[in-house]
Amino acid sequence: MIKKDDVQYISHLSRIYIDDSEAETLAKNLEDILSYIEKLKMLDVKDVKPTSHVLPLKNVFREDALKESLGQENAIKIAVESEKGFFKVPQVIE
Amino acid sequence: MKLSELTAHELLDLLKAKKETADSIFSSVKNVIDATEAKINAYAHISDKPIQSKNSSQKFQIPIAIKDNICIKDYPTTCSSHILKDFKPPYNATVVDKLLNSGALITGHANMDEFAFGSSTETSFFGPTKNPWNLNCVPGGSSGGSAAAVGAHEAIWALGSDTGGSIRQPASFCGVVGLKPTYGRVSRYGLIAFASSLDQIGPLTKDVEDSALLLNLIAGHDKLDSTSANIPVPDYTKSLTGDIKNLKIGIPKEYFIEGIDPEIKESILQAIEVLKKQGACFEEISLPHTEYAVATYYILATAEASSNLSRFDGVQYGLRCHPKDKRRTSLIDMYEETRHQGFGQEAKRRIMLGTYSLSSGYYDAYYLRAQKVRTLIKNDFNEAFKEFDAILTPTSPTTAFKIGEKASDPLSMYLSDIYTISANLAGIPALSLPCGFSKEGLPIGLQIMAKPFDEEMIFKIAHSYEQNTEWHKKKVAL
Known about the structure:
By secondary structure, chain A is mostly helical. Chain A is built from three helices and two strands. Chain A has helices at residues 4-13, 20-37, 72-77, and strands at residues 82-83, 86-87.
């Protein structure tokens, strides 16, 4: 059973602020969806290997060589706030 | 007939014969956009002039709509979300580069469910797209804008993305052809990720030949996407031979159980008869884990989404919001407020569901279990393709539903993808094409699936069906 407190806890893990009215609706939605998902517990999967990816992927290596990249100027162009070529965020050190 | 109503291959013939110019084709489409966009809302961002490359080969100067989650350099790319408001990427997606090099004339960014989270295009920050066949109905989703644009002749063809049916279900609702290629067939570089192990870009077109042509233009290995497959790309138009004699096609019994609209079942049965006349053989098969696909998907897709969408935090791009409450001034408060204001309800729901299933104490019960069930679903298809060349099913259990009908019940919305989700979990290619209309005049879609990297088989069967029916010629009257 998903309660409002659980929703507040998950919302903090998700870094999304949720107000009280939203929490109520979300608790009900998540409860509905999770009870539907319970059906997966009917299957015996003890000896089944998990699939994280459908293709037989191998690590892809490349030469450690210099090549053209976006460049600081272009990367910072889309910043919400910037200063001296850096992304700017609220103060994190007291 | 207006130029905007023609297919790309018909227009390419006219261009080659110098009977029409790229300018006149673009204006014809632009006129339709100007006249009908207020009714349909197929676009999130419309470009006044075509977005094109000066150095292109000019071979494929066809107006195309691109889903709003595929990056176009210096052009608004917003996933139809408030949190990416005004975001203009500093680079092109690989598919966009390929299209521009071929001569494409991009009309703009097509509307979509926010971050591709939805099956109706109702969760867009820019408001819902309407179904061109009935303005009170949804166009499907999440590539609803792309499907509606093609259906309403606001583009000749379009690109969408498909994570659980987001190309095929809207194609079916809007009476167009939609293909989800094999996972790895098309580069995902520059596609803003929803669920990286499931996402794939694909074409929405007016007929099967256009689908093959557009896949030719976008498929192939890309160094910038290490999950793109290094497998040669055939000329897909060569598979449009009409010869389907003795092909073995499976009909999974699990796709015809309760919940399917009787009119849809009837249309599929008639489609089977059409293909039988061309020499294909049909047999009932079983994909025993079908009923677990939706549950598996909503664990895996949301888990991947919760991780992928953590990048939208108000730091590097997009929206940044600070709480009104003066006690909430930390960096984390800024993240939380930006995401509170920036994401819509469905995005919040999915990020939180994914976060929950990955959180300590729940990982084994949900995420790991779902990954194991994914193996079972994939094995079902492996078994079936040992004996069969293709699998044929309906694309959706219903025709387009009314706007608002499922908006407040997320679970019923999720279940509208019940026939499309398995192809993403198994990574196989699947295509939807028109196979009839309901009594109310809404399009019905037929889905054809094949084994990985055998899009040619799908095109062959779909083309044969299309050549022997008239559904794809029916035009919307707006």
